[in-house]
């Protein structure tokens, strides 16, 4: 059975460092035997089809291949089309009423317990808010991620220790759902 996936690479092509050109990312994915490959933006979003059914194994193979190709480690998550659509559908904020830069999803490599964020004084950050989902966190930041004090707090090591996580704005979330729709 062929599954459509999105690969979400973390921390590449930022400020000219850790360069992973999208044509080379497509080559790496092709070399791993994946098909129907398309990239979105320059920030490490790729959609592809694969006969492999274990998204964690696909991500591990991709991490290894990227390290071999570029000489540095690249954290990446791989999620199937159904999961991406479910995350978008479960958004607790009114996505249709917000600008894409106001709403973000952080994808985690595994489920995250609310206790991880228990020390956060959420009301102190209003009107910014967050909600946990299934292996994800939704962040409403009305002034955008770059100005978000809540995003900074959520990203502190005590909240993210031991996790692989990568964040996408709502425009990218919606585009990846569209690109993976079968």
TrEMBL record:
Gene3D superfamilies: SP0830-like domains
Domain of life: Bacteria
Family matches, as InterPro entries: DUF1697 (IPR012545)
Protein name: DUF1697 domain-containing protein
Organism per entry: Streptomyces durocortorensis
């Amino acid at each position: 059975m062929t599954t459509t996936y999105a690969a979400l690479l973390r921390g590449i092509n930022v400020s000219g460092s850790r360069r992973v050109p999208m044509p080379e990312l497509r080559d790496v994915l092709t070399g791993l035997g994946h098909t129907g490959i398309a990239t979105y933006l320059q920030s490490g979003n790729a959609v592809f089809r694969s006969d492999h059914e274990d998204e964690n194994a696909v991500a591990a193979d991709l991490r290894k291949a990227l390290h071999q190709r570029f000489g540095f480690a690249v954290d990446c998550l791989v999620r199937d089309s159904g999961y991406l659509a479910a995350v978008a559908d479960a958004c607790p904020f009114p996505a249709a009423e917000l600008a894409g830069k106001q709403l973000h999803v952080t994808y985690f490599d595994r489920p995250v317990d609310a206790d991880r964020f228990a020390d956060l004084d959420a009301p102190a950050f209003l009107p910014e808010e967050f909600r946990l989902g299934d292996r994800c966190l939704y962040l409403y930041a009305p002034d955008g991620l770059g100005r978000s004090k809540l995003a900074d707090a959520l990203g502190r090591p005590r909240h993210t220790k031991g996790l692989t996580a990568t964040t996408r704005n709502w425009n990218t979330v919606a585009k990846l759902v569209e690109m993976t729709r079968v």
